[in-house]
Amino acid sequence: MTESAIDLESLSLRASLDACVKCTICETQCPVARVTPLFPGPKFVGPQAERFRGASDTSVDHSIDYCSSCGTCTLACPQGVKVAEINHHARTAMKQQQGIPLRDKLISRTTLMGAAMTPVAPIANWALEQKPIRTVVEKVIGIHRDAPMPKADGHTFSGWFKKHTPAPQSGTKGQVIFFHGCAGQYFEVQTSIHSVEILEHLGYEVLVPKQGCCGLALQSNGLYDDARKYVSRLTEQLRSVSRDAPIVTASGSCGGMLRHEAREILEMEDPELKDVSNRTWDICEFLLDLHRKGELDEELERFDVTIPYHQPCQLKSTGIGMPAIHLLELIPGVKVVESGQPCCGIAGTYGLKKEKYDIAQAVGEPVFDFIKDVNPELAACDTETCRWQLRTATGANVVHPIWLLHKAYGL
């Protein structure tokens, strides 16, 4: 299937369409519709509008472009209608009719961005803090001048991994494959390092094959064919070192791509992806499973702190619950308060775009206020872009939950 010929019939999404009873629950739960009249709601542009689209007529109301693809509508639907997925394909069809903007193509190449910024990290980070430069970028490319941007680390995770000495007990409990994702390779390197050190501390030999991008940003911006190629290449890379070991990731968005988006939105059904998807664990999910089996080291230092926690959309879509909360509360003295909000607004690259920035900020405002009220110094969130959004908006040190566990182990 080509990007220019998206057929919802062949993608099986219409199979869920007739289950829609127009109850409007998805409308009431949509974080975008509640802050802007530009988006009439997921039911209106999805199941309702889809009934008027034929296989050869993919035109849609332009308001669908304001859908952030957070997936809240699908999760909220009591009838099991794949609202977000239907909307995603309709929006992609519209973008392909009109032509995908250069900006959307550029911000989808996360590996290229990281590789370019890392060798010149101090200069790149400085440039991203300069208002005149950001203003020019906004006018020329369309990335909002105040949008949260990643900071280059100056060294890569894979470079650290090649030089590091594994813990003495590494390998006593078997092997795991670590999937770091683009951000974990270039921008959130410390999170990847902490993850490996904890896994080795618990007795696992950590395998890190050469790995590329999962294609999530490409898929989010309508570049389906490119995204499928990235997914296929990544699954080959992750399977190259072991066909049995669990695949553990500290990137909730990248893990969500392999477990949900690639299968539900890109409709990839190859056995290699199914194998990788079924073996992929979010790191907090993996560690909590060890706890339930009595295999987790629970000799943890005490920290008396209240942590505001926000669960990202991608983790919600995988249906794993909130393992981070249960894991963090194993640390003596730690109290976790959950945001109760559907989305922080960033939605991957959505909140970077100049025409959507204000909407993204309005969507995220309840989360921003929540963090400021509970603990304006320290908060936790599982995905990278969400942490960048929350750090920029609140000034808090927003960390991956694994950061706190690493400190509690004294590593």
TrEMBL record:
PROSITE patterns per the record?
4FE4S_FER_1, 4FE4S_FER_2
Q: Does the keyword Secreted apply?
A: no
* One CC-aspect GO term: glycerol-3-phosphate dehydrogenase (FAD) complex
Look up the signal peptide feature and give its range: none
- Pfam families assigned: CCG (PF02754), Fer4_8 (PF13183)
Please provide the Gene Ontology terms (biological process) for this protein. Answer: anaerobic respiration
Q: Which UniProt keywords apply?
A: 4Fe-4S, Iron, Iron-sulfur, Metal-binding, Repeat
A GO MF term: oxidoreductase activity
Protein name, entry field: Anaerobic glycerol-3-phosphate dehydrogenase subunit C
- The organism named in the record is Scrofimicrobium canadense
